[in-house]
Structure formats: structure tokens, C-alpha cells
Amino acid sequence: TGIIGDTMSYARLAGVGLAGFYLASAFNQVAVLMPELLGVVLGTIVMVPILIGAHLINLFLGVLSGFVHSLRLCFVEFLMKFYDGGGREYEAFKLKKPKSVIIGEKT
User: Fold this and answer.
1) In a 10 Å sphere around its CB, with 0-12 CB exposed, 13-18 middle and 19+ buried, how is residue 74 labelled?
2) Residues 58, 24: contact at Cβ < 8 Å?
3) Residue 75 falls inside a structural domain
4) Number of folded domains in the chain?
């Protein structure tokens, strides 16, 4: 790939990290609005599940993102620099059945 491709790939990872930060920030802003809109008691009761649920979703997405993007970097970009494919092309298993033609009347 080269240095530009590697730099762009890591810039993509930085963008994914920033997206997680801004998502968490948006969740916090929505939760802070609840006491102002619904009153202190009801707003706080609504705010806590919003914060817990939204940040758990963000945590799950962050963990999944870290796993998927690191695998992608490892297999697609890093290992392809050293892998020299040899051997034979993959051919799926299949039943080789001879073709036959039946000549005669329909029954």
C-alpha cells in the first residue's frame, strides 16, 4: 500500500475514536436536558437510565470497533505485505455427476 495508505488507515481509526467521543458527548447533552424539560425529580429519574443505556451502547460499539478495526489492520494491511500466495486456487467441493440424456417417450 505505501505510506499514504497506512496514514489514511490510521487517520480512519482516529476518526472512529473521535466519533465515539462525540457520541458520548451528545448522550450527555440529551441527559442533562431531561431535568430542565421534565422537572428535577422526574428528569433525574429519566436521566439515569438514558445515561446508563446510552453509554453502554457506546461502550459496546467502542469495543466492537476496536476489535474489528484491529483485525482489519492486521489481516488486510499488515499481513498482505508479507504473504506470498502460492499453491493452487481454491475449488469448492462438489459432486461431479456425468450428464446424461434420456431418449424415448414421456411417461
Assistant:
1) exposed
2) yes
3) yes
4) 1
Note if the pTM is more than 0.85: no
Say which DSSP state 76 is in.
I
Residue 8: burial class (beta carbons within 10 Å; 0-12, 13-18, 19+) = exposed
Amino acid (1-letter code) at residue 10: Y
In the structure grid, which three cell numbers stand for residue 27, read together? Answer: 448522550
Which DSSP category does 79 fall into? G
The pLDDT assigned to 1 comes to 53
58-103 tens-digit pLDDT = 999 989 988 888 888 788 777 777 777 788 888 888 877 888 877 8
Is residue 107 assigned to a domain? no
Rounded to whole angstroms, how far apart are CA atoms 23 and 27? Answer: 6
In this structure, are residues 69 and 13 in contact, taking their beta carbons and an 8 Å threshold? yes
Give the closest residue to 32 by CA, choosing from 59, 40, 18, 57. Answer: 40
